[in-house]
Amino acid sequence: MSAINLYKIDNNKSHEFYNTLREKMEETEPIELDRSTAAETHIFSCMLYLSIPEDEKSISWNWILRAFNKESITATSFPKAVLVIEHNYETIYAVTFGHAFFLVDKYCDRDFGFAFGRKLEYEEIKTTTLTTPGLRRNKVVNTYINYSELEFDSGESFAKLKAKEILPDGFSLYKPSLEIGTSIRFNTDSDSLDRIIELICHVEEALKNPEDKCKIPVFSKITDKDYIAKLEKMLRDQIRQGQANINISELDIIGVTEVFNNNDGMFKLKYKRHEQDILTLNEESIRGFCKMFDIDFDNEVLDIKVISYNNGESIETSTIHDMIDFIIDSEKCLLSKGIWYRYNDDYLTYLRDSLSEIPIEYHSEYDFSSDKYNDYIDFLYATNKDNTEYHGKTEAQIRYSLKKIHYKERSFNELRAKDNGFTNYDRQTTYVGNNKIEAMDLYKNRCMFAVKIGNSSAKLCYVVDQSLTSLKMYKAGKLPNIPEIDTVVIWIILERKTHINGKDGKPDINLLDMLMLKNRLDQWKKEVRLQGYKPLIWINYMPE
């Protein structure tokens, strides 16, 4: 039985695709197969590109051999090949062998696999890989036993599907088990060019059917070049302004293959003439590289190249730009693997419905303002000005010191404890192992509060992570002296005058133009419920 990993090449990238193959692999004489009928012309031009490495390279764990006075080992890399098939000299397909999928994936039509997958009915779902960009768990692999439903939550998009298709009686083109991602992996009993061409014809025929047999949410690719240029500028502006984190997922899907970054491999960072070998690829290691060679992180980070190695062989070269997931809230757009996508209607509908399940409360007496903050600083000045640490200082110096210690968010929490019966845990930390954990910001009536003042996803997403970390530590019994809770509250103080009220006059989180935050809140809601608690959001306002 043979596994056929079939890609369709993006026509806009075909020139670059062929150039890369010719640069890295040996080109063979083409074979042309005519499968035309009286009604239709079907010419298939087949070309094989082959790479058989001869150079022997040192393996990465030779150090342990040297430690025991053994000779170092060298090894040759595995061969790889790409079969390219042009249908009627228009549509380009590629079948990969060995590790060649790394080479082909960046040039593929990324909608091809799931467009075909929606035309099928499934007898059994084996594995799904779902992605939710912007979350701490941005990719989740689910495995199933005796299960036939495509299951997904709000805000999730499919990255891979492994399933058994319901095939008609007598069907023998391929086996029921399929893997679908940016490519399609078929299992077939026949090893031949004819069988691959039959598979291509079968897929093309299925895609002609306008009706989908199942719903598989994915992102919609953006093709408008002017709009992409606008998004690119917004991305770079946000990095320069410190409003963006460089997050690289541990798990990636290349075609239909799961690739775990930082696992049994190494990387080389390269920028102009500077380069450095690293074992772990993350923002910390990238910043360290920039610091070592005096590279301007804010302006240059996206252009740094990352060369990935496996057993000493370079298997892929990308830029940081093409490896990160990044969301631009205001445009409802996502950068993934170097391509800009728009969240489609299915995604946004599921997210809206899920967030609508979270109860939201507004209590006007807790609205904050610069005047209330300054009044509190006046109170602190009056009660603390004669303290010994302020002897010899002017009023302006004392007020400056007080504002530095009692910044707005801390003052908000202190006021709630002073005037409204809350218990203030802000800045009270405990150690769990070597990690310093802040238990919560406020507590009242069996509610654990995490508080944040802000006006953007970049500022407000932190409060979601803080809430989940505190909850998990509490649930595990690692936060001593914390009262019993039954509700987990995220308290957001929006730096704006306009209230986000729905038609019923109540706060509606869906009216916030903060897609990344809403993704995080959606996941937070699910995790709070899984832990056995009630999720609740409080909204207040602080005009800028």
Q: What distance lies between the first and last C-alpha atoms, to the nearest angstrom?
A: 66 Å
Which outline best applies? globular
Strands, total number: 31
Class computed from helices, strands and strand pairing: alpha+beta
> What's the gyration radius in Å?
28 Å
Account of the 3D structure:
This protein is of the alpha+beta class and 544 residues long. Helices cover 29% and strands 30% of the residues. It contains 14 helices and 31 strands. Strands 1, 2, 3, 4, 7, 8, 9, 10, 11, 12 and 13 form an 11-stranded antiparallel sheet that branches. Strands 24-31-30-29-28-25 form a 6-stranded mixed sheet, with helices on both faces. Strand 26 and strand 27 form a beta hairpin. Helix 10 crosses helix 11 and helix 13 runs parallel beside helix 14. The longest helix is centred in the C-terminal third of the chain and has 19 residues. The protein is globular, with a radius of gyration of 28 Å.
Task: Show the helix and strand layout.
Blueprint: E1 2-8, H1 14-24, E2 26-27, E3 31-34, E4 43-51, E5 56-58, H2 62-67, E6 74-76, E7 80-87, E8 91-97, H3 101-105, H4 112-117, E9 122-131, E10 139-143, E11 157-165, E12 177-180, E13 184-188, H5 193-207, E14 220-221, H6 225-240, E15 251-254, E16 257-260, E17 266-271, E18 274-278, H7 283-292, H8 297-300, E19 305-310, E20 313-319, E21 325-328, E22 333-336, E23 339-342, H9 345-355, E24 360-362, H10 370-384, H11 395-405, H12 408-419, E25 423-424, E26 429-432, E27 435-438, E28 442-444, E29 447-454, H13 457-475, E30 487-494, H14 515-530, E31 534-541
Parallel strand pairs: 24-31, 29-30, 30-31
Antiparallel strand pairs: 1-8, 1-13, 2-4, 3-4, 4-7, 5-6, 7-8, 9-10, 9-11, 11-12, 12-13, 14-23, 15-16, 17-18, 17-19, 19-20, 21-22, 22-23, 25-28, 26-27, 28-29
